[in-house]
Amino acid sequence: MITLIKNVLAVLRKDDRFSVEKCNIVIKDDLIDYIGDAPAYEKYDTVIDGKNRLAIPGLINAHTHSYMTLFRNSADDVPFNEWLFNRILPMEDKLIAGDSYWSTLLGICEMLRSGTTAFLDMYIFPYETARAVNDSGIRAVISRGLVGETADDEGGLRRIGEAKQDFINYKDCAEGRLTFRLAPHAPYTCSPAFLSTVIDTAREMGIGIHTHLSESISEVENIRNQYSMTPIALMEKTGLFTLPTAAAHCVHLDDEDFAILKENGVSVLTNPASNMKLGNGFAPVPRFLKEGINVALGTDSAASNNSLNLFREINNLSLIHKGANSDAVSVSASEAFYAATAGGAKALGINAGELSIGKKADIVLMDMMTPQLNPPTDIVSSLAYSANGSEVRTVIVNGKIVLDGGELKTIDEERIIFETNRIFDRINS
Predict the structure, then answer these.
(1) Which residue among 348, 373, 397 closes a domain?
(2) How far apart (Å, rounded) are the C-alpha atoms in residues 372 and 382?
(3) Rounded to whole angstroms, how far apart are CA atoms 64 and 81?
(4) How far apart are CA 257 and CA 271, in angstroms?
């Protein structure tokens, strides 16, 4: 299958800088095969007219819990501990098999419509997330959320077994769009002994780690009181960082923590809206960037954001650090856009995040004939400060069109909305 996107304005990355050029983009099967002025082939299976369109690499949501989309707007304006223990967990306890599938698809609908082509998910219900990714056409790295108090914790071992079964059942599905990690939830829900079991399992499976670290002040204080070290230092001591690790939040750090993250090549997954909404503060992203620590951008769940629109998150990332640090050059538009694309790809370990030859054909076409993108003075600045996701017209994942002219091509959006509302009514009755 060969697809031509002709005469399109494209955001490219050359010599570590973004540039915007008019070009033709050729997709061969699932990869970008050509970018340039001249046609690369005589015949094409599909031709997309790029007039008045902007091609960007598909955005990558580097941290979310898509099954929680069902809980959107259900636990707002309350402290973090009340949000988690008194609101969210009681609703989770009412979910039954199949609920997570529909809730995940609802989140995928929102992500595709706003230009996200890949996401890193922490899930708790076996089989459902993998099935939703397989059915929808999106790309994902999914990671089973794990908790355990001992090395042979019965519940923890059951969850690890479910994760391994998901891996076996789905690793060869979804045309290569689906890969896996293990997700020890956090230092306060996983003992060092249980983490050793997780590490051994991940190494045996040949996969990496996705976890939460140093999200709140109370977490850091409690871990210090229990282990006389920070959560990040504790994770290094357990050996977690000997595996490829993507760590969500990392809001409250000391100097030693920065050195540990850099030395071990840990990717930080920053979630500005969720951290602000739950009152957890601002991650030190400017210092991460200065230290050369890879930063990727996530939304967290719709229960704590309450949006999965990554354009809103790019805007948050490029603005809040300027205000918080009284520094107008802190976290530039380019740095924020990189975190939502190539930075995310690096964190997830996927061959995507850039429009360049040999990368996966995960491409978003946006309508340049929208007021907020004009005049087109600085396109990357427009993406960070002006775009809101409504400009997305076409979404291509793995070389296949999954959204065209505002219509989702792979999943029934109307039914997904019906099913999730039905589930919501049941768990709140």
Answers:
(1) 348
(2) 8
(3) 19
(4) 18
In a domain, 324, yes or no: yes
Asked whether residue 74 falls in the same domain as residue 101, the answer is yes
Amino acid letter, 356: S
Measured in degrees and rounded to the nearest 5, phi and psi for residue 23 equal -160, 175
Residue 413 covered by a domain: no
136 and 213 in a single domain? The answer is yes
Distance CA 316, CA 280 (A): 15
pTM above 0.85, yes or no: yes
Distance CA 99, CA 67 (A): 8
Q: Please, which pLDDT band fits residue 400 given cuts at 50, 70 and 90? A: very high
Q: Contact 2/25 with Cβ under 8 angstroms?
A: no
**Which CATH number does the domain housing residue 44 bear?**
2.30.40.10
Encoding tokens for residue 179? 């890969």
In a domain, 88, yes or no: yes
Mean pLDDT of 159-168: 96
Q: What is each CA distance from 304 to 28, 199, 411, in whole angstroms? A: 39, 28, 25
Residues of the domain holding 252: 59-348
Torsion (CA) 289, 117, 356, 174 in degrees, nearest 10: 120
pLDDT in tens, 263-306: 999 999 999 999 999 999 999 999 999 999 999 999 999 999 99
- Pair (159, 206) in one structural domain: yes
Considering only CA atoms, which of 409, 387, 413, 410 is closest in space to residue 56? 387
Q: What is the dihedral of CA 212, 105, 61, 205, to 10 degrees?
A: 60
Last residue of a domain, one of 348, 366, 387: 348
**Measured between alpha carbons, how far is 94 from 117 in angstroms, rounded to an integer?**
30
Q: What is the DSSP string of 116-183?
A: EEEEEEEE-STTHHHHHHHHH--EEEEEEEE-BSSTT-HHHHHHHHHHHHHHHHHTT-GGGTEEEEEE
For residues 271 and 236, what is the distance between their CA atoms, to the nearest angstrom? 22
Look at the chain and report how many structural domains it folds into.
2
C-alpha 116/C-alpha 61 separation (Å) is 7
Contacts for 358 with CB less than 8 Å, ≥ 6 apart = 31, 32, 351
Task: Copy the structure tokens of residue 372.
Answer: 């907020």
pLDDT tens track for 293-303: 999 999 999 99
